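Intended use. Records such as the 6-phospho-beta-glucosidase entry shown here are meant for training and evaluating sequence-to-structure methods. They are not intended to support clinical decisions.
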Amino acid sequence: MNKYQFPQGFLWGGATAANQIEGGFNEGNKGLNIADVLPGGKERYNILMNPGFDFEIHRDQYYYPNHEAIDFFHRYKEDIALFAEMGFKAFRMSIAWTRIFPNGNELEANEEGLAFYDRVFEELHKQGIEPVVTISHYEMPLHLVKEYGGWRNRQVVTFFERYVKAIFNRYRDKVKYWMTFNEINSGLVMPIQGLGFSYQKEEDKYQPTFQAYHHQFVASSIAVKACHETIPDSKIGCMILFAPVYSFDSNPENVMYALQEEQLFNYYCADVQVRGEYPAFIKRYFKEHDIELEIQERDFELIKENTVDYIGFSYYMSRTEKKVKTGAEGAEGNIIGGVRNPFLETSDWGWEIDPEGLRISLNKLYDRYQKPLFVVENGLGAYDKVEEDGSIHDEYRIDYLREHIKAMGEAIEDGVDLMGYTSWGCIDMVSMSTGEFSKRYGYIYVDKHDDGSGTMERKKKKSFFWYKDVIATNGEKL
């Protein structure tokens, strides 16, 4: 037992994304999206981080794990029953845009796609689980990428508005909690998935990136407005990839550099969606990078009048920075850069493990915004071994999650208003960054492997029973 007191009604649960669990990539009249053209294995990370991707499927070269994923499209009842057995209060999921509008620019929504999510939401409610729905989670329609250039094109705002209004109207009685764009700030390092385009090698990346962001901010505001009008008792939030930035040492130059990196990565997108205006620091950044945005007359008014109700964010790691660094100092596994922190251990994939960083993140966000917070992603990707008797002893995952939940408890004691916790990958699925099945996050093991083999059988890990007790005691038993 411990001293932590989580609020009554705290939303304990797990998180997923449609493109990483559903499969059925060409069923139900679904169109192709970005995830459908990303191969599995190390090639995926290189594609995400480097310019010039062609957004084509090359079956003779690559395996595409998202096409089948873990087959939630057909097995959702089985999986939701397992979530209910753990006692989930909430299940964070996303709607695949291309199930609703296969190309993204149709005038009418696809009834087969709408009906699929009707069934999923009905099953969740039957099991007493509140859906928390991300509207756009790294699955932009491929047609909008190839024909319109992704979010750099203002026309995409109109297509997105049509999409959100269709799902709000359809699910107005089934979904109370929404989020607009998953990890919206990730486009600063991986524009393919979040912004829907790949830089050309000779292209200046700054102008298209921040023009695309402006269009997303407008689209997010349109979604907030439509959600509040269509579902008056709803809550709609933004979703940020948050990683507190530490200075490598007390050298003022490094401290200032770390501050600037944190401002841009952690607060730029959040400030616009939560405060309703561009932050002061971005003006200098635009000036220094010759960025001039095309802005329509009512954009700033729309953004100001339609701010989010809460802040959803993912937390996996912190980031340590110094102004001048050598290649040998890099924290390669961290994806978002920085230098190695000598005080932290790393996961099997090189991600630095920093539970105290979650408490720091919660305090920073709440101090800045005074809005309810929701940890909608946090978890440990690791190799799991199935024993001869079928059991999976993932004590390392339990240890990781326990320390992060303790950090949340401390933040609540600090005065932070925290709504809930949906740990990432409550069931094993395709890894976003590497396209691997072997990078497992779940409480539920799925017999699916990096070469595409496997029976899809679901098995409960030791962490399944541990998390069940955590939820049943509202965080008292860790």
